[in-house]
Design goal:
Blueprint (H helix, E strand, L loop, with lengths): L7 E4 L5 H12 L3 E6 L5 H9 L2 E4 L5 H8 L4 E4 L3 H4 L1 H18 L3 E5 L11 H15 L4 E6 L1 E2 L13 H10 L5 E4 L1 H13 L1 H4 L2 E5 L2 E3 L1 H12 L10 H8 L2 H11 L7 H6 L6 H8 L3 H21 L6 E2 L6
Parallel strand pairs: 1-2, 1-4, 2-3, 4-5, 5-6, 6-9, 7-8
Antiparallel strand pairs: 8-10, 9-11
Helix pairs in contact: 1-8, 3-5, 5-6, 7-12, 10-14, 14-15
Length: 323
């Protein structure tokens, strides 16, 4: 295994959910982190600076600012948020990052993607990420793609409006008993840090990430056990949800009802045996420390059994040979 010396990694979206998790794990692992944000004076940016990151102001719509921000960086964590920017802006920003990383000579780009890694689903925010990936490959970047399906934060975080989405419209369209593959944002950050630490082992890989497989009905019961109450749900007609949130999420959930998903958590646990189950994540979220420790021990035993007795499932190639 060849590792990069602990140099500098530029992290896009450093004050967001996935970029923030990646920045924190990189700092814990001894990397120098250049946290890229549009708001360097915000509370999340200040917290990163206090943790040791170099906070740099740059906008993903500004290629010149990105090139300057990437100077001297060995690696780049690339992620965009289409829920804020829109799909075309996501693609444009992702391509801007790719161009700046290529111009700066970045030795490794880790891309925080999502979805199933193939076209034809009709889900705009999955198709857009394929366009960004293709541009990164065209630029010849040494690339690793990390693809979660559903973040566990969808169940609790206010900016996802879980009462309207996860606990109401999603099960109505996808089906309450449809199996969903889940990953915590913090675990994606841990895996991204592992990828940067093992460049030769990760360049050229496109990895579907999942640490647990649970239906919404099962998640509802786990939530009730962890929080002491059921999750709040606010029923709205689908047409009203689409008027508020657009039609991409409803297209995704309808697609999930009949999709044949890869439900194998083994590849993720082989990379990060400590990745959380939904149960453990919810117990931690609601500060049930004793239950979380019990769940953690159970998860560790299960991960050990999986990683020692089950062959790692096939990954989708990233179409880029290891550099």
């Amino acid at each position: 295994m060849t590792t990069l010396a602990r140099g500098t990694i530029a992290v896009l979206g450093a004050t967001g959910r996935l970029g923030g998790a990646t920045a924190r794990h990189l700092l814990e692992d001894g990397w120098s982190v250049r946290a890229i944000t549009r708001k360097p004076d915000g509370p999340k940016a200040r917290a990163l600076a206090a943790a040791g990151a170099q906070v740099v102001k740059a906008d993903m719509e500004d290629p010149a600012a990105l090139r300057k921000a990437f100077e001297g960086a060995q690696g780049v964590f690339n992620v965009q948020n289409p829920m804020k920017s829109g799909l075309e802006a996501e693609v444009r920003q992702g391509r801007n990052v790719a161009d700046a990383a290529a111009d700066a000579g970045a030795r490794h780009v880790v891309y925080g993607s999502a979805g199933v890694g193939r076209s034809g689903t009709g889900v705009g925010q999955w198709e857009s990420k394929l366009r960004v990936k293709e541009h990164m490959l065209t630029r010849g970047l040494p690339l690793t793609v990390l693809r979660p399906m559903a973040l566990m934060e969808l169940m609790t975080d206010k900016d996802f409006y879980p009462a309207l989405s996860t606990w109401n419209t999603m099960p109505a369209l996808a089906g309450p008993d449809t199996k969903i593959v889940w990953l915590a944002a913090d675990d994606l950050g841990a895996i991204a840090a592992k990828a940067f630490a093992d460049r030769d082992g990760f360049v050229g890989r496109d990895v579907a990430l999942a640490s647990d497989v649970r239906s919404i009905a099962e998640c509802r019961e786990l939530y009730r056990a962890a929080a002491g109450r059921p999750p709040r749900s606010f029923p709205v007609p689908v047409w009203m949800f689409e008027r508020m949130a657009g039609k991409d999420l409803t297209a995704m959930w309808r697609w999930l009802r009949t999709a044949e998903l890869d439900l194998d958590v083994t590849p993720t646990l082989a990379i990060h045996p400590g990745a959380m189950t939904v149960e453990r994540w919810l117990l931690r979220r609601f500060s049930k420390d004793g239950g979380a420790r019990t769940a953690e021990a159970r998860d560790a035993r299960a991960a050990a059994r999986l990683t020692t007795s089950t062959p790692i499932a096939q990954e989708r190639p990233s179409d880029h040979p290891p550099a």
